[in-house]
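tokens incoming
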């Protein structure tokens, strides 16, 4: 009887766990559909504003971007199981997107058939609100003023950039970006990074060669605008991005989660817009997002509204870069690629694994770390050290060398305050043997197995 009860309880627990996993997956699909709905809405609202201003080329680009987002969103299937009344939202969002799709195609057709100088084109319809608004006449002599690409408080259109409040706000946001995340001249070069020849080659083809030979990299050869560098921590992902900015002579925007978050409602979206605006002004530019999973992780049912809006705004701005002529590349780095939202993963077309250093790379790193340091190590000692540091990351090797370097100082005890620097003995193989006892690899075999699995599923060849 006891055995039967235990088996029954185990079966119930298994069924409950499976049901909970199914509910979580369904809610995840619900949030993805909601995200695409909001993303399409934002793009179409921007397209309508550009259409009203008479900027047909930019309006067409945004209409097509919104259409592409709608196509993606309509491919998402959400099961009704476990959603209850929330499933009504699914039907409403899909109905919205189907209606927007029809009206966008209609408007694109109208704009394509009209000549560039035609003045009799029908006034645009606000596809999102479905209200036809007459176009207010604008004097031909007055140039179109750039406007903030967001919405003001309450959803109203933001004031024109020429007005004083908008100028002050734009200046403040510009100062935030320039003061916190802008690095114009990174000092790292390719030669400063040991190994990673495949990753360097991919970056060369994606950024540097297209800048040098724009005539060759067109059409199907046009370079990707999104790149993901992923792998165990401490192996040079950030250094690679900085070296790329140096080699390409590009402005380098070094972004982290703290750079784009704010306690003020709507501030994060404005910072994202200003980031991409500054990148366009200072192109060629590289936007590097360190720990990208902390900003653009997978959308979920319990996610905060501010986080969801930031992701939506970032995806809209990124689509603008991908569909435009700006020389802007977005590079993300993460130790947790599994946590990225699928919409983000799709936009980061190149996904390059930065692995643990191989023996040749470890040898080069040790040579670099020990250059200029007093050390008595034979070639055989170095080879034994290379073999002993299997599965050590680049940062682990640096920590190992620092620990070995401090041992001769530690041996002096109280006498360290009076001993001349040239009397301290150099490091030797024994110091590294001692250091190996306290500095261990920071990445487990299980973590490496997860990276290998993700690479087989989503990675691209470098």
């Amino acid at each position: 009887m006891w055995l039967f009860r235990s088996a029954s309880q185990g079966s119930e627990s298994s069924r409950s766990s499976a049901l909970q996993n199914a509910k979580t997956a369904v809610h995840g699909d619900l949030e993805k559909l909601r995200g695409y709905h909001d993303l399409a809405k934002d793009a179409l609202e921007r397209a309508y504003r550009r259409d009203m201003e008479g900027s047909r080329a930019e309006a067409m680009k945004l209409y097509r971007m919104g259409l592409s987002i709608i196509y993606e969103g309509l491919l998402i299937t959400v099961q009704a199981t476990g959603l209850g009344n929330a499933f009504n939202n699914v039907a409403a969002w899909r109905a919205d997107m189907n209606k927007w799709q029809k009206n966008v195609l209609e408007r694109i057709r109208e704009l394509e058939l009209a000549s560039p100088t035609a003045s009799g084109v029908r006034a645009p319809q606000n596809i999102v609100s479905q209200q036809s608004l007459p176009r207010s006449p604008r004097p031909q002599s007055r140039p179109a003023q750039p406007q903030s690409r967001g919405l003001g408080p309450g959803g109203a259109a933001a004031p024109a950039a020429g007005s004083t409040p908008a100028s002050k706000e734009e200046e403040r946001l510009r100062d935030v970006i320039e003061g916190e995340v802008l690095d114009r001249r990174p000092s790292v070069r390719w030669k400063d990074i040991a190994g990673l020849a495949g990753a360097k080659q991919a970056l060369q083809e994606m950024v540097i060669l297209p800048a040098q030979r724009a005539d060759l990299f067109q059409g199907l050869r046009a370079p990707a605008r999104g790149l993901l560098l992923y792998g165990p921590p401490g192996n040079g992902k950030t250094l690679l991005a900085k070296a790329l900015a140096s080699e390409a002579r590009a402005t380098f925007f070094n972004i982290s989660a703290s750079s784009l978050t704010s306690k003020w409602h709507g501030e994060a979206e404005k910072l994202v817009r200003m980031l991409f605006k500054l990148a366009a002004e200072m192109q060629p530019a590289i936007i590097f997002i360190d720990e990208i999973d902390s900003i653009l992780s997978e959308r979920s049912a319990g996610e905060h509204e501010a986080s969801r809006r930031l992701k939506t705004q970032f995806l809209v701005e990124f689509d603008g870069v991908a569909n435009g002529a700006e020389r802007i590349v977005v590079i993300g780095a993460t130790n947790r690629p599994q946590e990225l939202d699928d919409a983000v993963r799709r936009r980061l077309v190149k996904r390059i694994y930065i692995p643990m250093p191989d023996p040749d790379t470890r040898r080069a790193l040790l040579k670099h770390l020990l250059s200029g340091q007093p050390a008595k190590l034979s070639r055989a000692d170095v080879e034994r050290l290379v073999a002993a540091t299997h599965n050590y990351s680049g940062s682990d090797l640096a920590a190992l060398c620092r620990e070995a370097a401090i041992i001769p100082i530690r041996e002096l005890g109280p006498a360290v305050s009076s001993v001349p620097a040239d009397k301290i003995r150099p490091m030797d193989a024994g110091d590294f043997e001692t250091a190996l006892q306290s500095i261990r690899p920071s990445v487990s075999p299980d973590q490496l197995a997860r990276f290998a699995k993700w690479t087989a599923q989503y990675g691209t060849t470098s």
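note: Residues 285 and 363 are 34 Å apart (CA to CA).
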